[in-house]
Amino acid sequence: MGRDGGARRKETTAGEGNQGREEPRRLRQQRHRRRRESKTRTVRSNLLPPPGGGEPDVTAKGAPHRWRRNQGSSQYLADNRLKTTKYTVLSFLPKNLFEQFHRLANVYFVLIALFNFVPVLNAFQPELALAPVLFILAVTAIKDLWEDYSRHRSDHEINHMDCLVYCRDEKKFVNRYWKEVRVGDFVQLRCNEIIPADILLLSSSDPDGLCHIETANLDGETNLKQRQVVREFLELDAEFNPLKFTSIIECEKPNNDLSRFRGYIIHENGKKAALYKENLLLRGCTIRNTEEVTGIVIYAGHETKALLNNSGPRYKRSKLERQMNMDVLWCVLILTVMCLFSAVGHGLWVWQYGERKKPLFDVPESDGSYLSPVLAAVYLFLTMIIVLQVLIPISLYVSIEIVKICQVFFIHQDKELYDEETDSKLQCRALNITEDLGQIQYIFSDKTGTLTENKMVFRRCTVSGIEYSHDANARRIAMYQEADSEEEEVVPKGGTLSQRGSIGSHQSVKIVHRTQSTKSHRRTGSRAEAKRASILSKHTAFSSPMEKDITPDPKLFEKVNECARCLEIMRNQEKSLSHLTPELADIFDFFIALTICNTVVVTAPNQPRHKVRVRFELKSPVKTIEDFIRRFTPSRLTSGSNSGSSSSLSTNKSTHKTGSSFLSTLSTESTLLKLEARLTHSSPKMNNNGYGVQPGGGWTTENSLKEGELRYEAESPDEAALVYAARAYNCSLVGRLPDQVSVELPYLGRLTFELLHTLGFDSIRKRMSVVIRHPLTDEINVYTKGADSVMMDLLLPCSADDSRGKHQKKIQSKTQNYLNLYAVDGLRTLCIAKKVLSKEEYACWLQRHLEAESSLENRDELLFQSAIRLETNLHLLGATGIEDRLQDGVPETIANLRQAGLQIWVLTGDKQETAVNIAYACKLLDHDEEIITLNAESQETCAALLEQCLYYVETKFSSEVKKSLGKVNIGFTSLHPPSSSATTCPNLGLVIDGKTLAYALDRTLEDKFLSLARRCRSVLCCRSTPLQKSMVVKLVRNKLKAMTLAIGDGANDVSMIQVADVGVGISGQEGMQAVMASDFAVPRFRQLEKLLLVHGHWCYSRLANMVLYFFYKNAMFVALLFWYQFYCGFSGSSMIDQWFLIFFNLLFSSLPQLITGVLDKDVPAEILVAVPQLYKSGQNMEEYQPYMFWMNMIDAAYQSLVCFFIPYFAYRDSDVDIFSWGTVIMTIALFTIILHLGIETKTWTWLHWTACGFSILLFFIVALVYNASCSTCFPPSNPYWTMQKLMGDPMFYLTTIISSVVALLPRFLYRTFQGTLFPTQLQLGRQLARWAPKKFNVPKDTISQPHPAGEQELQSSALKGSHNSGSPPQDHFPLASQSELPPASVTESKSEQRTPNVNVQSLNDTMMDSLRGHSPVPQRPEGAIQEGPSGDSEGESSTREVSPLSSILDLPDFSLLNWISSTPLFNEFGRAFRLSQSSLQTDMLGGTFLSVGSQLDQDLKGFKRETSDCFQEKVKGTAAVCHNSENLETTFL
Amino acid sequence: MAINYNAKDEVDGGHGSNLVVGSHTGPGNAIGGSGPKSRRPDNTAFKQQRLPAWQPILTAGTVLPAFFIVGLIFIPIGIGVFVTSNNIREFEIDYTGTDEKDPCNKCLFWNDTKPCICEINFTLEQPFEGYVFMYYGLSNFYQNHRRYVKSRDDSQLNGDTDSLKNPSKECEPYRKDGDKPIAPCGAIANSMFNDTLELFQMNESSLIRVPLHKKGIAWWTDKNVKFRNPPGGNLSEVFKGTTKPLNWPKPVYELDEDPENNGFINEDFIVWMRTAALPTFRKLYRLIEKKGVLHPTLPVGQYLLRITYNYPVHTFDGRKRMILSTISWMGGKNPFLGIAYITVGSICFLLGVVLLVIHHKYGNRNNSADIPN
User: Whole-model pTM above 0.80?
Assistant: First the structure.
């Protein structure tokens, strides 16, 4: 409401800083304010007394609430109240009616009802004609009212959340509702509170003036962000006192840019200080990790950035409805034609009597005159519109709404869409687009949190060439997964513990609280896990039990202990560390690196950090050389406790040791039990008061430092995972300050490392380093961790001569092997390395580093160089494999959705490497896929790149088409249905980064980008901003006219979700923004499968059938009246009683179609899931095609003819009266219409039977009652005793039976013939379900099992869809041939990247090396791609196998090569050898798929690979060409 | 909805879904969750859409029997109906008199004050047995015209005194004649058929009047419920203050001498007021009661129809007929239904055969090939 006013209120021009002194100008300003949009807003403390009555503006800012309210100037302010409702009590009726009349149909019906009040026109009794319209308006109004009320309720709840606001009178912070917060108020926030408005941070309990916030609600990023107190206030010694705040804040007026905030603060003394976004706390974020912050409200309510970022939801109209509206228009046209025809007929009829005396039956006007034929025709036209109005189905809209609500209800009730762990089920937030779910063509998915769990789990590691597989860990994870499958058994096993746990979880979900405990209910792998999660309510950003409960590898654990023991001994004996064996030293360093080489912050839950700054007077990093010299005078850092917590730590250590020594699950549970016991008694209370430490609980800072309570907050989940992993080996990080890191080690106790430098991670270096001084050796160590692709090149070259060097080399190669293995397993790999610096070296480096730091120009560049200088000649310690766990069933879901003809694009804000990694893991990209990577630095390069890729793809494509044509003819008949995704290339993947995407989305390039993207099987957009995401979706939606679905979980997906035709939010993970913006919210990604394939299909097919039926029904009914016009002089008479006529739609024929619309199942759910291809029927709109409307119209015309003329002939020249005869026709029509529905109904449950029976019964009962109720009441028909009389007449029954049979015969026959001779996919699916219901108990296996006989059988088989899984290439051949592509040209200038295939097959080692040679070039974005393939042992192994072949491929003559690769013979050859490779792959894959594991699945993969490999051959060929075309420059752009 | 926060969810997470759909899950299902209330949907057949269902698949094989059954049922019915219809005796005579030679031709432009009477001879070739119904039939008479159908006042006809004095507006322009309300009002009443038909059996020389019953030709409910004279003793007094319809020669209370058949409850009037469905219709005029088992009601022979020709139809090309018909259980003579049944039955049978062929040719394919492996 007050947005404009608010904007006006405080905005003054930018130049007007010291407004206090310039009152005249301000007043002038005020006058002009309405005309001029000012650029800034000024905020002052509300606590200051108002400067003077003459300045209402200032008063508004300055007065406390009561004042302001009294003075009535608060309307200038956007307060913090939230209002999303549309109506108020008073405005509801007019506004709602107004809105309803926006729907043209309503206007139409009301108009027609009003026509009835015109005497010359009236066909029906006017009051009666109004009834249906009013009924429908009322139903809609009630629905709207209810929705608005629910909005009001949720607004109310948010508005009434509490926060602490400083009150001038009480001189302290008092509780107020959110809605009472005003701009200029001082708000105090405690840890884990949600920020109620945009607040400028003025004070923090943190000594550094920092505050951490979690912005997951806004941008979906779960990592904590730092905010700073405004600098001047940081220096304040005393506690911040709001009363003393006299400064004025000038800032931008409200805008929706989350990442920008500019302004300045003017202190009383006139000093100005700039404000940045680092000073602003945004509404909706959560305070973390900071005990208390205070700030002044800058923007409130609807002016906050969070709310400005939320444009209201788009009104969505489903595709089906759009199509339906088209047909409604056709109906209007038909109606007009019919009315015109009647009008002309009537005119002629009147005209023929015109000459002579008027006939007896032609009733004159009331004044005795007769209408002229023309006028009579005009009047009749309008009358006919009234009579035939039913043709425009009045109840269609309301029926559709009812059906959709019921469909939504059933979607809600599906227990497969219920997620046990979060106790959440699917939410449908949009009621009117359920059927769109059945027509989706493109899925745009977020990655983090949507495809993955967004948690990293430490899985394996390698230290100095020895692999520690952490079998127990793997087993434990497997156990979780198993537990998932047998969830019922878990309950008794868990006993009281799990019971309590789940109770706790339920409560905490429901209780209104502001702790982070919901966070801990984030979904984890399984239900059992969820229990643990709820037990271990750790309020940690990146910690789940999975991450923390790492079962150490016993071997390694032993070694660590041994190592620590040695060290302990050595320290006691004052020996140098070099006496340690190299392996043990490596292990020691490895764990130290894991622990400290990161930016993880240690805190205790709900306990903000209390920093103890005692040790170093100097703040790191070292600023000057003098510092350096001063600091490195030998003063050995002793280990030991620098806080009072050592005793508690030691006790904890023992607990931990016992805990970790057991490997069985039982023991984990027992430790969990202890933890749970500790936590359950404390956490609920915390939930209630939101932050505090409750008295009596004995919770002190010391206690909370118990190991179990430590939490790690990391910028990236990987880091947290590593730290937790290290802790599992008792090597735990206990404290981190800017200049020191404390590590708790077994035997050694606490070691404090002096942190000299942290060289942060960047995506170009792909590594990070820390420089520390080792407390034991006093050496300066550099620990580096990074992507293996870069790290391996930075290692110290080892001489082959001495044994140590040899050994090292061996370690390196071993490690590399293991890394490859990890990559195959889909783990994220990191290498850990170390370097010891001598003081001289360090000094040397430091000098240049400091220079770099202090340089103004090129600072980043210089720092980068500096880092590179440091990170050389590293000593490899080991490698880790971390799993970013995919959500359950993601690869399977993606595979299934793909089979369903959906194209899946992943749009992620993540960096390219991660995205590609995950894409491989979730089978979005296949290793046998060629990947096009677009990385461009400028518009021009992007254009060129696109051009080249497009050219490349097209040439490749067309050559494939040519080759495939032969196959098509032989292998496949035309049976194969063309698919809408006809242009997808089976083996192309597109990876594009955000910057390039921005260029590609430019108007000039978007078409090219799109035509390239649609050729690709999968598209991956990395580093994309929310806006870009929505632009991509919009592009596809608008240009390709495709149905799009966007799925995401974070607020950064909101715009995309809103733009897409269907927006799906993943609920529960990262705030609720996505969910609130979405149309559907699912707890898990995998549920998308059921939602789309089953419910989407059902909803679509049900609704499509219902809509068609509706059209048919009304047309058929109306046509009866139309035919009658030929026998009543086109007078607009109707033989059917008007009550029947009016209530036919509402009463007699509505229920069965509603039941069918809600409950009909054309194909059972199991089949729909098992044969995803059936989904294509929705994409291709097979259920409701334009011609079907006309088919139905024709059928309706036929049926009405039958229903009219059989009674006509039967009662011709008899003494039957008009309404008796009409009742016969009505009865026939009703029977026909209901039986027609019966033919169209696929599944008959008792509800269907009841509905049909009920309808017919209802008609008879109503007719009987109506015809007996009153002898004079129902003019003009007055059908007294008609029905009773009819029912005593055998003719009535005879006519009814034969008419219905004859009317339905054609459709019945058509359906029969169709079902027998040319059944559709869906019909086959239905038959499949019928013939082989049992087979689908294990649907996957049955369906996806490939046919050994291949095409032959495929061809003969009618259910080709189900076989497609076995033969994707065939699936695509005909499609490809349909897309007309320019003929292939042989020479290609494809600039493309090495893809896995290229790497593996066609490039020999030297080539790879040469490519690697480019890698040190600073900007080398495609390196990410390299990481995938090279770390891929699958690829490696095949390289070896293929070597003879690759020599062929490397032939210099590339035209020849192309020729070879395009030859079928070669193709076959390639296929043969591929087969062997694929079997190899299968074996390896088999190991990784624990859950699937079935032999069938493996077979399937083998076959899939085999077939798709045919394509690969071509890829290979062309790719090889491209590499020699010397176009690599473009690659590296 | 622009405002969405974690907070909101936490606060109202439990309702979010319910707000939209309004369907609470009901008491939590206690299978898995031991919690106080789980949001797990009930595992009922209805909610999981697993109600036991019959899923008919329309293929040649499955619908075969239906066609044969329909054929086998329809053909006998058709034969039965057809035979019944054929057994009905019906005689029809058009007395409109448009033809010059027609005896009633003279009445077309009759200008006398006396009614025109014409006589038509006809011969019945077959005896009519049982009850014989005498109809008058009109063609091209649009009794179903929209405004015509409406032009009546049922309350008035039901004896409502208020409506008698002040008829419904629907009756316009036949509502009032000057100041006096018309009883019965409306176009239907105004256009009532007023020919008189008399039937004579011709012996060698004499005419024997065939007794025609004028009662019992209307629906019982019409006569006794729907139509009533206004309360009061003498009909002429009751109808005092009203006037006759314009076209009527005499007022409504002089339609018949019999007080049980006079005024609004005159059966001829009632029959006329039941408007016909189609422009060609017949209306029951008189009943000829059967004489006994041995004697046909109307034996074979010469008859004379004496018509008091009042009703003008030639202006709008209408036709007037007199119909004599016996009746059966299915009403009057109508061969259509019987033929229709036989035809449809045969077609169904034939289609059954066709489907049988199709089934044998293609039906098996489905069973085998559809199922993978």
Answer: no
